UniProtKB/TrEMBL annotation:
Keywords: Transferase
Annotated Rhodanese domain residues: 21-111
PROSITE patterns: RHODANESE_3 (PS50206)
Record protein name field: Sulfurtransferase
Entry annotated with the keyword Transit peptide: no
Species, as recorded: Corynebacterium alimapuense
MF annotations from Gene Ontology: thiosulfate-cyanide sulfurtransferase activity
SUPFAM superfamilies named in the record: Rhodanese/Cell cycle control phosphatase
Transferase in keyword set: yes
Amino acid sequence: MSNTTTITALEPTELMERISANDNLVLIDVRSRAEFESAHIRGAYNVPLSLVAEHAQEFAARLDSNVVLVCQSGTRAAQARERLSTAGLDTASVLLGGTAAYQEAGGDVVYGKHRWQMERQVRMAAGSLVLAGFIGSRTIARPIGYLSAAVGCGLTFSALSDSCAMAQVLSRMPWNRGSVTPTLESTINNISTATGTVKLA
């Protein structure tokens, strides 16, 4: 494969047009299973970011060029894109604004049981830890205040590196696993059966 990255970004309206034109796209939603079950673009396949990161070489070797990566806002999809590009798949596209923007644009979305999106969970966890550190430093022991500083450092690093360790930890929590846990084999088989665009070996 080429070493030159030729990845593009798609606006929600562009994606809707390509879906309507039956453009043989493979939509891969890299959010957690629970987020996916809560709401996802019709026809998308769930491949959590952790699974993409773990098996980037396998996915890059088996997926074709018509891949569109999706998450809630676009951040995790961009991270998945970088993983796949490094592994050799340099033609994937990222949906700008993610599922949220697609919903706002009037795209066809399948709804299920409501769950908090990962970004909201991260804000809740970070805010709770900062608050706990502040209260603990005032009521129990002053060194507990370093917890707030640690969270602040983590969020700063997250912004600079465009990654989020807290989101990775939260994605492994029981409430984010959903009813079915995707695997490399099940994902490849599901996409191949439905589209015929995935190389099985």
